[in-house]
Amino acid sequence: MITDSDVTDADVEESILKEIGAKVIKHQLEPTDNARDYEDKTIALIEDADAAMIVNAPMSARVLSSSKILKLIVRYGVGYDNIDVEAATENGIIACNVPDFMTFEVSDHTIMFVLALCKSLPWYHNMVVNRNWKSAFDWIDRYPMTKVDGKTVGVIGLGNIGSQVARKLSVFNVRILGHDPFLSDNEIKVRGAEPADLETILKEADIITLHTPLTETSRHMIGANELAKMKRTAMLINTSRGGLVDQNALYDALKTKRIRGAALDVFEREPVDRNDPILELDNVILTPHVAGLNHQALADLRTLASREVLRVLQGKRPLHPLNPEVLAKARAYKCKDGP
Predict the structure, then answer these.
(1) Does residue 221 lie within any of the structural domains?
(2) Are strands 207-210 and 152-156 parallel, antiparallel or unpaired?
(3) Which among 85, 99, 162, 179 is placed 20 to 30 Å from 107, CA to CA?
(4) Mean pLDDT over residues 278-292, rounded?
(5) Which domain does 66 fall in, by range?
(6) Which uninterrupted H or E stretch holds 53?
(7) Exposed e or buried b for every residue in 214-229, given b needs 16+ CB within 10 A?
(8) Domain tally for the chain?
(9) How many angstroms separate the CA atoms of 219 and 148, rounded?
(10) Other CB atoms closer than 10 Å to residue 56's CB: what's the count?
(11) What global pTM score does this model have?
């Protein structure tokens, strides 16, 4: 069961899963503000499914405990904050994501944000489009431009995407500070950054970019207290998960010019409410959660996710289990090539 996805067909999934004669059902479950209703609709969809391929569908403890035959959940993408991994384990269900997807796309988008913020690109574009051409000296105080060269950049999260960001930033002659609680100092150095704690990054970085999963411990890791510690000239970039940043606190910091600017591809609530005050600010760049999207990347994602389903339903070990401890006791399937 494909509960929801970003495409209208299931051609890629069907072409791969036909090898085992699997029936692929494509649905488009729309998010709802009523959490229980959203869960009820998800429960109805996966009732007879051996595997669920999901984007936003809630895989809560209530949903997971409702199914007696579900063996596998695969999240189309890197983040998996809508999957209760512990509940999946308790119910003998394998949970997987696709971590090797859109690495280059999101890191490119991040670099674009870095350059656009430093050069105040959107504001000067709008000046020309709105036929408001003036001498640069008439605008330079309101929309100052700055060079990337010599800046200190804090990269929070040095997984596949964060490491690519650090590598691409290295050509700009910047100091790169890296923070990742899951990596040793030596591993951070190997990935192109100088190890630093969060406090140091907040105080010293000119640009901070987030590339970490959303968990209970990372939720609102950037809030009012953290924003208050940043330089007034600092800029914040988030292409990871909206919940990493307290958006109300960020709005206040941008509105009062507590920090210079921000660039966001992700938001606490998506789609963004048309009345969200952050849309009114002139020191923020916004894109609609598209950093990782292009036709080839989307095709790759569908292929990788489908092959993960194929492996598990063939009794083989998945490449990217979020709960590897469940493999030895996974419902109805023992991995032939060991745990």
Answers:
(1) yes
(2) parallel
(3) 85
(4) 95
(5) 11-100+294-329
(6) strand 51-54
(7) beeebebbbbeebbee
(8) 2
(9) 29
(10) 17
(11) 0.83
Average pLDDT estimate for 231-246? 97
Examine the domain organization and report whether 194 and 270 are in the same domain: yes
Q: Is the dihedral of CA 209, 204, 245, 155 positive or negative?
A: positive
* Each residue's pLDDT tens digit, 96-119: 999 888 899 999 999 999 999 999
CA angle 112, 117, 122 (to 5 degrees): 90
Do 301 and 281 sit in the same domain of this protein?
Answer: no
**Residue 4 forms part of a structural domain:** no
| Cα 59 to Cα 77: distance, rounded to the nearest angstrom | 15
Q: Assess contact for 238 and 265: CB atoms under 8 A.
A: yes
Catalytic residues: 241, 270, 289
Residues 133 and 274 in one domain: yes
Write the pLDDT tens digit of every residue in 203-232. Answer: 999 999 999 999 889 999 999 999 999 999
Amino acid at 211: H
Residue 3 lies in a domain: no
In a domain, 6, yes or no: no
